[in-house]
Write a structure and sequence with these properties.
The protein is mostly helical. It is built from 4 helices and no strands. The chain is globular, with a radius of gyration of 11 Å.
Length: 72
Amino acid sequence: MEERIKQVLMRTFNLTWVDENCSQKTCEKWDSMGQINLVVELEMEFGVSLEPEEIGTMVSYQDIVRIISKKL
């Protein structure tokens, strides 16, 4: 699952690599529009539906892992 999340982040933000420290603070492409694209990509990749409260707290790789883990 974690490798798939990294792949989604790389694809969404057009990055060559992602590590566990990836966040809105460290990735300049992760802005509000990027957040929307990321949510769509994650929902499609994992077949889940993310709630607005979850989306609002999803500001780092670690947050995504935590939220997606609960959904699966």
